[in-house]
């Protein structure tokens, strides 16, 4: 399957989002033209102004996609592009009903694939942003790309609106990704493009999209702000909680390499720097001198939690990422410093 060439035009869906804004920036910096879908003219103008401000806006254009679940909404957007990074999908834990988050996730994913069959005659590859939420759920010592989160899907099927919003989100990612692979397998013999899915865990790092107040932060970065900067989570049990993470700039790089690298075609790839315990982020923030936020005193927490080098309760195999993408990941210390510097610039 041919990969993209320098100068090709790439469609990035949801280009005004946290991850997608970095994907767009990196693609522009690597010499590609980018067409980004945005929800409104205002969102598009912000992104244009940002990219012009850093000197890479000449090859950036936008198209309005106000509702990713609407039939045919991507038909015009896919025309004339050579590859697609489909990042647009809701990420929050506020759903009251499963369909609020599952419907746009699944319909948006199928919609971009259907539009590509009909109108994306130049497309060579589609990279889809999934999540480790689509993988973990069942019990496993180390999760791999062969695992699927059937637990959340069953929970939502069985409980409906009584299921937890976290299960609703996880089910949306699992069902959307499965729908993508089923669609691709059904049509593989008649199309000239392939797909790759990328599965990151929690994504942290500085923001470049349109976020003008703390209250507007995306879900993962808002969580980091609450734990580390605001210090609203104070219990030892909560600070000992763990998960896995990746820097937003690394998942953006993963999209770029997955679009470029022939070997990434037809692959499902976990993108994971490693595990974390919340106390680690606090301890790192307290160790930075001088503090990027001198007006704030970070919670000390319980440093003894880190004695004995505890590991995250969620662990993921990294061999496929290492073999195909070969990313050198940002460290927790680097990401912490860059997030705090970003917050300081914003006056938070």
TrEMBL record:
GO MF entries: oxidoreductase activity, acting on the CH-OH group of donors, NAD or NADP as acceptor
Gene3D superfamilies the record matches: NAD(P)-binding Rossmann-like Domain
Keyword presence, Oxidoreductase: yes
InterPro entries linked: Epimerase_deHydtase, NAD(P)-bd_dom_sf, NAD(P)_dehydrat-like
NAD-dependent epimerase/dehydratase domain segment(s): 10-272
Pfam families noted in UniProt: Epimerase
Keywords attached to this entry: Oxidoreductase
Keyword field contains rRNA-binding: no
Entry's family note: Belongs to the NAD(P)-dependent epimerase/dehydratase family. Dihydroflavonol-4-reductase subfamily.
Protein name according to UniProt: NAD-dependent epimerase/dehydratase domain-containing protein
Organism listed in the record: Psilocybe cubensis (Psychedelic mushroom)
């Amino acid at each position: 399957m041919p990969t993209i060439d320098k100068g090709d035009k790439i469609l990035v869906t949801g280009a005004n989002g946290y991850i997608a804004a970095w994907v767009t920036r990196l693609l522009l910096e690597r010499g590609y033209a980018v067409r980004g879908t945005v929800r409104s003219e205002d969102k598009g103008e912000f992104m244009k102004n940002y990219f012009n401000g850093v000197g890479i806006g000449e090859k950036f254009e936008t198209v309005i996609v106000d509702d990713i679940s609407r039939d045919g909404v991507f038909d015009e957007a896919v025309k004339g592009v050579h590859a697609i990074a489909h990042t647009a999908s809701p990420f929050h834990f506020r759903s009251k009903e499963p369909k609020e988050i599952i419907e746009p996730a699944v319909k948006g994913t199928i919609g971009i694939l259907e539009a590509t069959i009909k109108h994306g005659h130049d497309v060579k590859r589609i990279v889809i942003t999934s999540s480790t939420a689509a993988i973990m759920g069942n019990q496993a010592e180390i999760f791999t790309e062969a695992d699927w989160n059937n637990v959340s899907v069953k929970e939502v099927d069985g409980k409906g609106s009584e299921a937890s919003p976290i299960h609703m989100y996880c089910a949306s990612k699992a069902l959307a990704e499965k729908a993508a692979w089923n669609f691709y397998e059904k049509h593989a013999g008649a199309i000239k493009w392939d797909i790759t899915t990328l599965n990151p865990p929690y994504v942290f790092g500085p923001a470049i999209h349109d976020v003008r107040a703390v209250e507007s932060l995306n879900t993962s970065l808002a969580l980091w702000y609450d734990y580390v900067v605001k210090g609203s989570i104070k219990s030892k049990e909560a600070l000992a909680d763990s998960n896995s993470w990746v820097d937003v700039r690394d998942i953006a790089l993963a999209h770029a390499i997955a679009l470029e690298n022939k070997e990434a075609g037809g692959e499902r790839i976990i993108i994971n720097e490693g595990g974390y315990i919340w106390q680690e982020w606090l301890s790192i923030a307290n160790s930075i001198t001088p503090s990027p936020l001198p007006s704030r005193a970070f919670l000390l927490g319980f440093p003894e939690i880190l004695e004995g080098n505890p590991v995250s309760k969620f662990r993921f195999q990294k061999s496929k990422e290492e073999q195909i993408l070969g990313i050198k990941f940002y460290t927790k210390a680097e990401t912490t410093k860059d997030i705090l510097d970003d917050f300081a610039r914003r006056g938070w």
